[in-house]
Design goal:
alpha+beta; 485 residues; 17 helices; 19 strands; 34% helix; 26% strand; single chain
Length: 485
């Protein structure tokens, strides 16, 4: 991919502006959060050009934003955030991506490293067997058409009604695990057929189950509010999304909204930014279908958490209350939502696109669960499988600058193909084992594709967000066991 040599004006050590006059047609400037060292890597591909292209969207306000994990994506960069006015702005499927509501769920335990290490191989085997994973994997849940529609409208609430988890899990899930406005009639039969056998499956690619150990606690009081108190305490991180259903919903609506862009005379620099006015029939249909896919993903992570709990109970021979495998939080990082913000001194209803970006609301925000009202919304930021993950909380600065958003992970520096060309799965497994990390993978190539070398340094990415004030670091954890899809 060609190097990008456009203008990046320094605002401060962590903010770099693409001026509005860079390209005729930009309605707002671009803003990239990064430190100086990261900029050279960002210039090696055209993701910054995508930031400028997103600034063309009708109704966009503030900035076209990119987090420090920015890399090339479909239409929008991954790590991109854009907010458009509901009144006269647009919604774009490219601003959400193909894995709608790809997201992360974190559970804490009362177990510690020594106890888990003694049974780690068996635990990973149980997780590998009981949580279906891999390309095209199918699940243990069999549902008919009516119940499929219930999943699409109920999300994680459907799963809890079926006995997969508790009401407390829902309280610790963004939107209570159910996005309003879902309409199964706006999801194609093909999408439902792809999703039906995949309910409760991990999938492939960068999706994973990760057994982690707390390495550092930056904010002990906040961590304690989330049930995390000790160095060495064991956590479980789940990363997956809406599988084939979400992919099909995006594919269906990208094609539909390309036609809508022409119908509404929307001039775009890239057809991958296909969009429609939020209030148009096409825009409303996309949001209703996207909400269905988001709910499917929350049901998916809820079921996987249930089976993971069963695995821990079986391996450690203790009842669940003694293991303490409780939800910390579940948050989406590929989604578009209608939210209220102050724009130019007035309240405005905005369609906030987060594509590879995590919601990060501050203390006291009405959408933060009661248990976290005083500390702010937990923000889950996984790194790569060989390094670390972070737990943070949202801030007022994020609300004022980034529409309550922060980074979602480390961000790729190598494509999957490039990573596979330079490494083998066996190489990666040996390297992980040398660092005390056991790994199991369902699909050939998934370890090499997801090797640490393919990602930015998560410590540097999170440091930028922390120092820019978009989030506050609370806990750093390191993996000891990984199940890859």
């Amino acid at each position: 991919m060609a190097r990008w040599d456009g203008p990046l004006n320094k605002i401060d050590d962590y903010r770099w502006e693409i001026p509005k006059n860079y390209k005729p047609g930009m309605r707002v400037p671009g803003l990239i959060y990064a430190d100086e060292k990261m900029l050279e890597g960002i210039r090696q591909e055209q993701a910054a050009e995508q930031v400028a292209n997103v600034a063309f969207l009708p109704g966009i306000v503030g900035y076209s934003l990119a987090m420090p994990d920015i890399h090339w994506g479909y239409g929008f960069p991954i790590g991109g955030v854009a907010a458009t006015r509901v009144e006269d702005g647009v919604v774009s499927p490219g601003g959400v991506g193909y894995d709608i509501n790809c997201g992360v769920r974190l559970l804490r335990t009362d177990l510690h490293e020594a106890e888990v290490r003694a049974k780690l191989e068996r635990l990973l085997t149980e997780l590998f067997v009981n949580v279906p994973s891999g390309v095209g994997s199918t699940g243990k849940i069999k549902v008919g058409k009516k119940e499929m529609d219930d999943i699409l409208t109920g999300g994680a609430r459907w799963a809890v009604r079926r006995g997969y988890g508790t009401e407390e899990d829902l309280e610790a899930t963004e939107e209570g695990g159910c996005l309003k406005g879902a309409n199964p009639d706006k999801v194609s039969l093909k999408a439902k057929e792809r999703g039906s056998p995949q309910s409760g499956t991990l999938g492939a690619g960068n999706h994973f189950l990760e057994v982690e150990v707390v390495e550092e606690i930056f904010e002990p009081d906040i961590a304690r509010s989330m049930g995390i108190e000790d160095i060495g305490q064991v956590l479980l991180l789940i990363h997956t999304g809406s599988r084939g259903l979400g992919h099909q919903v995006c594919d269906d609506y990208v094609r539909l909204l390309r036609q809508a862009s022409q119908k509404y005379n929307i001039s775009l620099p890239d057809q991958e930014l296909a969009c429609a006015p939020v209030k148009s029939p096409e825009g409303q249909d996309y949001l209703a279908g996207m909400a269905c896919a988001a709910n499917y993903a929350w049901a998916n992570r809820q079921c996987i958490a249930h089976w993971a709990r069963e695995c821990f109970v079986k391996v450690f021979g203790k009842p669940l209350p003694e293991i303490g495998l409780q939800m910390v939080y579940d948050v989406a990082h590929n989604i578009a939502k209608i939210e209220s913000y102050e724009v130019n001194g007035k309240k405005a209803s905005l369609c906030v696109h987060r594509k590879g970006a995590t919601r990060a609301f501050p203390p006291g925000h009405p959408d933060v669960p009661a248990r976290y009202k005083k500390i702010g919304q937990p923000v889950l930021i996984p790194g790569d499988m060989g390094r670390r993950s972070y737990l943070a909380v949202g801030t007022e600065t994020a609300i004022k600058e980034s529409f309550g958003s922060v980074c979602h992970g480390a961000g790729r520096v190598k494509s999957r193909h490039a990573a596979r060309r330079s490494l083998t799965d066996a190489d990666v497994a040996r390297e992980l084992a040398s660092r005390g990390i056991l790994a199991k993978a369902a699909s050939r190539g998934s370890l090499s594709e997801e090797a640490s070398e393919a990602y930015k340094d998560i410590d540097a990415v999170v440091d930028v967000c922390h120092k820019a004030g978009l989030c506050r670091k609370v806990v750093k954890a390191r993996p000891i066991g990984v199940v890859k899809g």
